[in-house]
Amino acid sequence: MQTKNPIRLVLASASPARRKLLQAAGIEPEVLVSGVDESIVTSESAEELCLQLARLKAQAVVGRLLPISDPQVLVLGCDSVLAFDGEILGKPADPADATRRWERMRGRSGVLHTGHCLIEVAGECRVEAVASTTVHFADVTDEEIAAYVGTGEPLAVAGAFTIDGLGGAFVERIEGDPGTVVGLSLPLLRGLLAELDLSVTDLWSRVAPGGQAVEPLT
């Protein structure tokens, strides 16, 4: 059944992976990059750090949208970090940093935390939460690390890896929601929407699967 007048969701992130994840779930977000300088935020807690950054990103985008006349606008900010060996790891500084990380991580495990902050702009309501997933890394070889770092993919993602790209071959298994590792947990988003008395179906912008034709993703 075709939904009517889907709520406008603005994604405060430049991440193509987050956008594709939403698109695959029938949600076509608008993208407005926050411009937040992530280096200015520090915390000893990985969960608190990713939530602070998600909140700052969402609030920055809300500030750019105001004043607004549309009563049905939501802004979603997300941020991910990896907790490993007592350290908080965001994106690597350079290829050498990414290589050192993989030499430490191979054959071991870490916890990927993704903070989510959802703001209902008109009502000035904010809900937020963190999703956490344990990631078990494969015992990759030096040659595999060098090849992977050489692609540039690890430099663009928290923890120097992703499961929805080349790095997926180097993750043996996860414990938790795969979307958390990609950068956005759909089940957690559904829960946040419920706190605002909304349903995830309110965001659907295309025909739901189940026999009907679904628009191809671009």
From TrEMBL:
InterPro entries: ITPase-like_fam (IPR029001), Maf-like (IPR003697). The keyword Cytoplasm applies. HAMAP family: Maf (MF_00528). This is Nucleoside triphosphate pyrophosphatase. It is an enzyme of class 3 (hydrolase). Its cofactor is a divalent metal cation. Belongs to the Maf family. It is found in: Cytoplasm. Keywords: Cytoplasm, Hydrolase, Nucleotide metabolism. It catalyses: a ribonucleoside 5'-triphosphate + H2O = a ribonucleoside 5'-phosphate + diphosphate + H(+); a 2'-deoxyribonucleoside 5'-triphosphate + H2O = a 2'-deoxyribonucleoside 5'-phosphate + diphosphate + H(+). Nucleoside triphosphate pyrophosphatase. May have a dual role in cell division arrest and in preventing the incorporation of modified nucleotides into cellular nucleic acids. It comes from Micromonospora echinofusca. SUPFAM superfamilies: ITPase-like (SSF52972). Its EC number is 3.6.1.9. It holds the Pfam family Maf. The active site is at D79 (proton acceptor).
